[in-house]
Design goal:
The chain contains six helices and five strands. It is of the alpha+beta class.
Length: 149
């Protein structure tokens, strides 16, 4: 389990509006070490996209089970949240657990996180896979429908 938040290309956040920036601020600001003190099943907070959420009451309802929430309790969990690919409904549901913003000094860069630029990002590997799939289909079609002599 990594506690390091890796930045995903900024366009990801813009295109999908996943950063929850529309979340109205409560005016409360929390340091990450304060969030870290809420790390149990009975008191479970996490930071996602530089927002702080108290998800204690959600543990029994979480479709992925309580274990994954416990794994990231008291932590910056944006990467884990995005890695799973939560739906827009899940993002809307998260809003009801919002308690405040992460302190400026503890914020991650524009927090739609996943792969780092150093790893090449996900879009280029997706394009490679798409190209390979197309090539395999073309070869298969050639052998199935090509003229036989």
């Amino acid at each position: 389990m990594s506690t390091e938040a890796d930045a995903k290309p900024e366009s990801f956040a813009k295109d999908l509006d996943v950063t929850m920036e529309g979340q109205e601020s409560s005016g409360k600001v929390y340091r990450l070490d304060e969030v870290a003190s809420h790390n149990s099943e009975q008191d479970l907070w996490m930071a996602i996209h530089n927002k702080v959420y108290d998800v204690t009451k959600f543990t029994d309802e979480h479709p992925g089970g309580i274990e994954v929430l416990i794994d990231y309790a008291g932590m910056e969990a944006t990467y884990a949240f995005e890695d799973v690919g939560h739906s827009l409904d899940a993002r809307d549901l998260l809003a009801q657990y919002y308690v405040g913003d992460l302190h400026e000094d503890d914020r991650t860069e524009k927090a739609a996180t996943a792969e780092t630029e150093e790893s090449g990002g996900g879009s280029s590997s997706s394009m490679i896979m798409l190209g390979l799939a197309a090539a395999v289909m073309a070869v298969g079609a050639f052998f199935m429908f090509g003229e036989r002599t």
